[in-house]
Each structure stands twice: as C-alpha cells, then as structure tokens.
C-alpha cells in the first residue's frame, strides 16, 4: 500500500510538472505581454523603457529558461505578482479557494444525497416505469448546460420571486452565516442538478451489477429478507465503485464550477482563472490552473486510495 | 439498426434531431420569407415581443430572434458534428495503434489518454481559446474569416475530446486482433497498416459510432459554454451559447431572451445522448447493460 501510494504520488508530481510546462507555454501565447500592456497604459514609456523592463522581467529570454525561473521561484513559494490586483499571487488565492471549496463540497454532497438513493431505487425497479422515469431524468440533467441552468435559476428565484440573491458570496459589509448560505443556495442548486445525472447513472449501473451477483442469491437463500439483502449487502458493495467515481469526477465538477462561478459572479477559483485569462494576468492564471490540475489529480489519487480502503480484496502491488 | 426500433426514446431523439436539423437548414428560406437576415438591425423594435414581422420577437439591438436561433443552430450543430468527427478520427487512430501494437506504444498512448482525461477540461479550453494565433506563427489574416474562427473551436475541442473513442476502440481492437481471420491475414504477410484498416477497423465500427454519438452532446455543451464565456463562436455570428451571454446582460430587462437558446441546446444534447444510449444497447449489447 505504501509503495503504491509513493508510486502514485511520483506519477502525480510528474503530471503536474508536464502540465505546468504546457500551461506556461500556452499562457505565453495569449495576446499581448505584460510589459506591452504596461506600455499601453502609460504613454510616457519609451521603447527603451520597454526593452529595459522586458530584460528586468526576463521576457527577452527563451521559453525554457523563463519556465525554469518560474518553476524554481514557484517551488520556493514565490508565484509572482498578480497584474489585476497588484498583490503577490499567493496572497490572493486564499479567499477564492475557501469559496470554491464551500461551493464544491456542498454541491457534491447535495448531488450525492439525491442521486445515490435515486440510482439504487432505479436499479431495484430495473426496466420498470419508475426506472425509465428516473433514467430519463438523469439524461435530462446530464444534457442541461449548467450556465443556462444558473441563468434560469437567477431569473426565477432572484429576479422574479426575489427570494435569493443573484450573485456574490455575502451581502456587502458581511451578513453572517445565514446570509452566506442564501448566497450559496442558487449556485449549489445549479451545480448539484448538473452532477445529479452522472452520479445517478453510476449508482444505478453499480447496483444493477451487484444485484446480479451470486452471493446476493445466497444471502436470500439463507433466509435474509429482501430489505436486509439490499440495505446490508448490496448497497454497501455497490457504493464502492460509485464513491471512487465521485472522487474521479472532481475535475469535471471543477469545469462546472468555473462556469457557475462566472454566471453567479461568485468569487472563487473558477472565476479567478477566467478573469485572470481574460485580463492577461499571467501569474494568477498560471497559479489558478495549476491548483485546478492539482485538485483533479488529488481526486484520482483519492479514488485510488478509497478503492483500496473500501474493498479489502484489493491489494496494490 | 432494427434493434433501435425497440428504443422509443432513441426514436423520439432521432425525430427531434431531424426536426432541429431541418429547421436550421431552412434558415435561408425563413430569411427570404421575412425579408431580413439574422444580422439586420430593427432599431424601431428592440427587445420587441412576438409579432408578424418577428415571430419570436427581437433581441437587445433589434435583430430577429427566430433567425438568430436558426443561424445559431446551424453553427452549433455544424461545430458539434464536425468536432465529433475529427475527435473520433483522432481517437480511432490512437485506439487502433495502441490496441494493435501493444507493449510500449500501448503504454505510452494510454498514459497520454489518461493524462488528457485527468486534466481540468474547461480551464484548459479557456487558455487554448485565448491563445493568439499570431504568436503561434500562423498568419493573422487567416483568422479573420468566419470559417477559420469556427475551425479553431473545432480544433481546440477535438484536442481534448478524442479520449473516449480511443479507449473504446482500443478495447475492441484487443479482442479483434487475436481472432483467427486476423491471425490468418498476418500469416499471409499482411502489413500492420493493412491489417488495421482492412481487417480490424470494420470490426470496431460499432463502439466507434456509439462513442462518437455520445460525445456529440458533450461537445455541443463545451462549445456553448466556451461561446457563453466569450471564447468560442464570436459575435456577430450567432451561436446558442453566445446568445445566452447577451441574455445574461439583459436578464433584468428581458428575461425571455434566455429561454429559447437554452431550450434548444438542452433538446439537442438530450437527443444525442438518448440516441447514443439506444445505439449502445443495439450495437454493443455486452457493453450496454449499465
């Protein structure tokens, strides 16, 4: 187990490294560069100033060298300055990370709480009307564009009914826990509904597979009631692949988070990455993307470990 | 194909798709009937409700909503289908090569596939969407034409969208390549390329079609999200995604603008997903019981 974990950690570190180089290269290909943006903003800068600044920031060096400087600095905790906020990048990441964590954890929980029972019920009613109805609902949820869902929720609950706030994390000036929860309600609803379909289909498939196993028949044969078989035996076993898939799905969830945060003007990591890319804030975009990649890798690592913990039959070589 | 008839949902999806495609294809006719096109500004009637001149009303600068929906449908459907084809082609090549050659080639290609799957998709697409073609060394004039800007979306989405097809084709190739007719062809001295294209490819078409159909829905969702964020199809060319981003700006004054583009994206994606599911049950019965 320990060896397997170390193996996976090394693999994850390698993927992070490759990804950081890729993203670093891609970001350099976005329009404009930091010094030219600066020059556009202050008419007194001469071409000589521009050249001097480029040399100062190392922008005249080849890509590989610039990447190496960024990497060594980043590893020692220096992620550079954010162009948009003029603060060190590292100081701007805290609140968005916390906001995104709140959003992701609550929508994951909400989606799982609705989808897992629904999936199990659909499997128990396999190929009956209730199964077909739940399946269709899952397909509908999968096919909903999450940004449109957010937009519709805002129009209904924030504009028409005026029950809930349309954007932000809290009322200006702060408003306590209830206020924060009210701000979280609509984005969480949009994200949870968008994830519901996938989660339900995973659970349904896992449960159908489990109910076909011989040991289910054995459990019935030795006299357990159907309810006992389902609740004590089948559900627990069907949950194993589903829990790991939920962890694997963190990357997909983050894609949803990015759009949702943009629609709801919710200041989290997704909006930060989007704003940074749109505002040519190279350092911030880079840090945000690396965090998102790290999160996805963490998800797949977690899935792997959970699988081993939940299913004692699995031994890692 | 007859098996598909047993899936009412798939038949319904197919009918709906036919309707959507026919509607999008008739955009030119509707333009002639109304005497305007999707980019004509009717400054006397901004955000107008439905009328004889504008069957579904107009948007914030007085363009006809119905025409924009139809033209947007052409863009969204074309981008979805073309991207799915490109992605399926890439995925098939990768899957065939990995499955047939095995060994180091397989390990390398599948690690690459796992790597792409593990990436945070949308953030990556946003960066790719923001890349300045001039800095890659491509002539900027090339990117001013509308067709080229669509081609760019196709390329960036296909770049990350080929993985499902690759995995399914690889799995199918693994089972086909050990069968006797393949062995026989190899014994007769057929080259790998010949074996792959003539003997294996026809036998992995089913999973290919299923994966490609299922991926179209996802691709249309990605394209609409990118266009919504301002990095996909660029206005004034309409797409369902970018129509929603102007609807976001108008949500207090004209919430009705948000209805149609979203409904159409939803119905299109739902149809492709239901059709893919039906095809999977029909063409790939062993993989279908999920």
List keywords for this structure.
heterodimer; A: 317 residues; mainly alpha; 14 helices; globular; B: 290 residues; MetI-like fold; 68% helix
Structure description:
The complex is a heterodimer of chains A (317) and B (290). Helices cover 76% and strands 0% of the residues of chain A. With 317 residues, chain A is mostly helical. With 290 residues, chain B is mainly alpha-helical. Chain B has a single domain (64-289), classed as Orthogonal Bundle (MetI-like fold), CATH 1.10.3720.10. Chain B has 13 helices and no strands. Chain B has helices spanning 8-25, 27-34, 65-101, 103-117, 121-130, 146-161, 163-176, 180-187, 192-200, 205-228, 240-249, 259-283, 285-288. Chain B is elongated. The model of chain B has no long low-confidence stretch (mean pLDDT 84). At the A-B interface, helix 1, helix 7, helix 8, helix 9 and helix 12 of A face helix 5, helix 10, helix 11 and helix 12 of B.
């Amino acid at each position: 187990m320990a060896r397997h974990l170390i193996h996976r950690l090394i693999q994850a570190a390698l993927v992070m490294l490759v990804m950081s180089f890729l993203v670093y290269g891609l970001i350099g290909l976005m329009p404009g560069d930091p010094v030219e943006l600066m020059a556009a903003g202050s008419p007194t800068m001469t071409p000589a100033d521009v050249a001097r600044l480029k040399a100062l920031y190392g922008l005249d060096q080849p890509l590989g060298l610039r990447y190496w400087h960024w990497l060594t600095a980043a590893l020692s905790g220096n992620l550079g300055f954010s162009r948009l906020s003029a603060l060190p990048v590292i100081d701007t990441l805290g609140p968005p990370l916390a906001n995104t964590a709140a959003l992701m954890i609550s929508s994951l929980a909400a989606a799982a709480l609705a989808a897992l029972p629904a999936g199990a019920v659909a499997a128990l009613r396999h190929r009956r009307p209730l199964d077909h109805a739940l399946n269709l609902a899952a397909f509908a949820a999968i096919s909903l564009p999450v940004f449109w869902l957010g937009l519709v929720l805002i129009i209904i609950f924030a504009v028409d009914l005026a029950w809930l706030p349309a954007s932000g994390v809290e009322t200006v000036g702060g408003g306590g826990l209830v206020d924060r929860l009210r701000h979280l309600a609509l984005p969480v609803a949009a994200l949870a509904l968008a994830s519901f379909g996938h989660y339900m289909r995973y659970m349904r498939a896992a449960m159908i597979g489990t109910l076909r196993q011989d040991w289910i028949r054995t459990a019935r044969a030795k006299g357990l009631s159907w309810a006992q078989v389902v609740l004590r035996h089948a559900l627990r076993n069907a949950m194993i692949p589903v829990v790991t898939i939920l962890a694997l799905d963190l990357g997909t969830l983050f894609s949803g988070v990015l759009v949702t945060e943009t629609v709801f003007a919710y200041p989290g990591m997704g909006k930060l990455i989007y704003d940074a890319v749109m505002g040519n804030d190279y350092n911030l975009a880079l840090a945000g993307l690396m965090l998102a990649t790290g999160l996805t890798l963490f998800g797949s690592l977690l899935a792997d470990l959970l699988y081993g913990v939940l299913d004692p039959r699995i031994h890692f070589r | 194909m007859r098996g598909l008839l047993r899936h009412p949902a798939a038949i319904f999806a197919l009918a709906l798709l036919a309707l959507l495609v026919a509607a999008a294809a008739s955009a030119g006719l509707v333009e002639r009937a109304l005497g305007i096109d999707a980019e004509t500004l009717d400054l006397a009637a901004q955000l107008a409700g439905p009328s004889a001149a504008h069957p579904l009303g107009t948007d914030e600068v007085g363009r006809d909503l119905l025409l924009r929906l139809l033209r947007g449908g052409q863009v969204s459907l074309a981008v979805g289908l073309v991207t799915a084809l490109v992605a399926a082609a890439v995925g098939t090549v990768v899957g065939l090569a990995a499955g047939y050659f095995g060994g180091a080639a397989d390990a390398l290609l599948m690690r690459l596939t796992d790597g792409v799957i593990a990436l945070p998709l949308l953030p990556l697409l946003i960066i790719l969407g923001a890349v300045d073609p001039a800095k890659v060394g491509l002539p900027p004039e090339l990117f001013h034409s509308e067709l080229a800007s669509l081609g760019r979306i196709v390329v960036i989405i296909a770049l990350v969208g080929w993985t499902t097809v690759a995995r399914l084709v690889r799995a199918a190739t693994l089972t086909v390549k050990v069968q006797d007719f393949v062995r026989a062809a190899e014994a007769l001295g057929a080259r790998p390329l010949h074996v792959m294209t003539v003997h294996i490819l026809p036998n992995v078409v089913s999973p290919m079609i299923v994966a490609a159909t299922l991926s179209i829905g996802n691709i249309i969702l990605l394209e609409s999200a990118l266009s919504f964020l301002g990095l996909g199809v660029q206005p004034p060319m309409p797409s369902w995604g970018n129509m929603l981003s102007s609807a976001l700006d108008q949500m207090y004054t004209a919430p009705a603008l948000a209805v149609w583009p979203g409904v159409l994206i939803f119905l299109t994606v739902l149809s492709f997903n239901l059709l893919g599911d039906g095809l999977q049950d029909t063409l790939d019965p062993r993989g279908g019981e999920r």
